[in-house]
From TrEMBL:
UniProt cross-references to InterPro entries, sorted A to Z: Cellulose_synthase_operon_BcsQ (IPR017746), DNA_Partitioning_ATPase (IPR050678), P-loop_NTPase (IPR027417)
Name of the featured protein: Cellulose biosynthesis protein
Gene3D superfamilies (UniProt xref): P-loop containing nucleotide triphosphate hydrolases
A Pfam family matched in the record: CBP_BcsQ
Organism per entry: Caballeronia grimmiae
Length: 254
């Protein structure tokens, strides 16, 4: 089993969109895929086929040791097994933050309970870094994919956080999302990011801003099905192809 933490340091980066799309595309490549939500927004299930936000999920097993988080799992039409975070009230949010801090290895232990094939991939949609949830995801991961938009604020926050995020020792790569290549500010922000972190960790598989993506989601469809020739569809397939290759190489060397 290989664990991939999908994180971001700024809101609106597209982390959940990318995590859910990669889960589906990897499943269509005949991989066994699990998607785990570690974000109190509790919206991953909506991307993967739930019609309403899940009232219970992974976090309730953290708050109640007698709860079985496997009972809160779902399988979508593409065969992706996924576990929502679950809905919390204000008091429960505080309790969950304290519990994550008190048990820093809780997620890694929970993932060890998954019955999986050796080539299985677990994608974790983690809350915005820094957070207890993101720390747990990074600590459990073999690979960290950090999603950023090519905006100055997002690139600066990522550059400032990259050191702490890499302390866990997992492979680390940056995914640039919502790129408009003719936008001068985007080019400048990427140049700033490259100067701060180097080219080696920024994946060449960049995701472009494309109106086909929100249009497809509005119709309840994956963009690579609704608009297979759109730029973003090619981009997502390219990122999934790279990740599938990375997983195969990791399995051979690991």
């Amino acid at each position: 089993m290989t664990v991939i933490a999908v994180v971001s340091t700024a809101g609106g980066a597209g982390r959940t969109t990318i995590c859910s799309a990669l889960a589906v595309l990897l499943a269509r490549r005949a991989r066994q895929v699990f998607a785990i939500e570690l974000d109190a927004q509790n919206i991953l299930g909506a991307y993967l086929g739930l019609e309403t936000l899940a009232p219970r999920g992974l976090v309730h097993a953290l708050l109640d040791s007698s709860a079985d988080w496997h009972a809160e799992s779902f399988r979508n039409d593409d065969g992706v097994m996924f576990v929502p975070y679950g809905a919390l009230d204000a008091e429960q949010i505080g309790a969950s933050e304290a519990a994550f801090a008190a048990f820093p290895g809780w997620l890694a232990g929970a993932l060890g309970d998954i019955d999986q094939r050796p080539d299985a991939a677990v994608l974790i949609d983690a809350a915005r870094y820094p957070s207890q949830q993101a720390e747990q995801a990074i600590r459990a991961a073999d690979l960290v994919l950090c999603v950023t938009t090519p905006e100055p604020a997002g690139c600066v926050s990522l550059a400032a956080s990259i050191g702490p995020m890499r302390r866990g020792g997992a492979a680390f790569f940056i995914v640039v999302n919502q790129l408009h290549p003719t936008h001068e500010m985007h080019r400048d922000a990427l140049a700033l990011l490259r100067a701060r972190v180097g080219d080696g960790v920024i994946l060449p598989q960049r995701l472009h801003r494309d109106a086909a993506l929100p249009d497809a989601f509005a119709r309840g469809a994956w963009v690579f099905d609704a608009a297979p020739h759109a730029q973003i569809s090619h981009d997502l397939h390219g990122l999934a192809r790279w990740l599938d290759g990375w997983l195969s190489a990791h399995a051979e060397t690991g």
